[in-house]
């Protein structure tokens, strides 16, 4: 068992134990297990633990194209999952869009303010005149009845058939290659963005940096593949792969980068 944990961070141990428990539950009951919404790092851990070629399989779904937050379905190899098995609902907000411009943080805050746990809803997509987001089917009626305002705007929640047009991501990830002298958080940020390591440290110490959706104030925090780093005021990036070292002993990395919208 300890061999599993040595590949992950100590802070991830509780979630890893949960994933191992899910896998055992599927093995014992020989029936599929549906999780709540997972962030990209959680999804990566699930894939790593479940594997690809065993008697237990895993699939992910979040309905949106390029969905970031997804539910995992862990199942025996006899089972053939369909979209319906993920129990997902696309919600669309009706509001006076001619007079109100809603933003992602507004919608996120409104959903949390009605007592909804973050694990019960997935991606939020904001268009020029509409807002769409994904929720777990089991909480849809609760959201429909309780989400009546976002900021100062009155809203109504409707269910959108998945065959309808869904909003694209806010922006595309731009892939780039870079090198970094270490995998420390401050060093990697300074390698991805045209800023000094001291400036990167100031962002971290100032509470402006999140790693995998959690605030991180340790400049020496060691990053890994699939980590998602968000920097308030700059944008965010995901470490897609770490590809060995150069002759000068620097790490070669590929990252997906999304700059802050102007």
Distance N terminus to C terminus?
A: 48 Å
**Strand-residue fraction?**
25-35%
Mean pLDDT: 92
Show unreliable segments: none
User: H/E series, N to C?
Assistant: HHEHEEEHEEHEEEEHHEEEEE
How many strand elements? 15
Helix content: 25-40%
Task: Sum up the overall morphology in one term.
Answer: globular
Spatial order of strands in the largest sheet? 10-15-14-13-11-12
The whole-angstrom Rg is 20 Å
Strand-helix topology:
Layout: H1 2-5, H2 13-29, E1 33-38, H3 40-50, E2 56-61, E3 70-76, E4 88-94, H4 104-113, E5 121-126, E6 131-136, H5 140-146, E7 149-150, E8 153-154, E9 156-160, E10 174-180, H6 185-192, H7 197-205, E11 209-211, E12 214-215, E13 228-231, E14 235-245, E15 251-259
Antiparallel strand pairs: 1-3, 2-3, 4-6, 4-9, 5-6, 7-8, 10-15, 11-12, 11-13, 13-14, 14-15
Helix pairs in contact: 2-3, 6-7
Task: From the structure above, extract its key features.
262 residues; alpha+beta; six-stranded antiparallel beta sheet; four-stranded antiparallel beta sheet; 7 helices; 25% helix
Task: Give a brief description.
This protein is α+β, with helices and mostly antiparallel strands.
Descriptive notes:
There is one protein chain. The protein has 262 residues and is of the alpha+beta class. The protein contains seven helices and 15 strands. It has helices spanning 2-5, 13-29, 40-50, 104-113, 140-146, 185-192, 197-205, and strands spanning 33-38, 56-61, 70-76, 88-94, 121-126, 131-136, 149-150, 153-154, 156-160, 174-180, 209-211, 214-215, 228-231, 235-245, 251-259. The strands form four sheets. The protein has a six-stranded antiparallel β-sheet. The chain has a four-stranded antiparallel β-sheet with strand order 5-6-4-9, covered by helices on one side. Strands 1-3-2 form a three-stranded antiparallel β-sheet. Strand 14 and strand 15 (251-259) form a beta hairpin. Helix 2 crosses helix 3 and helix 6 packs across helix 7. It is globular.
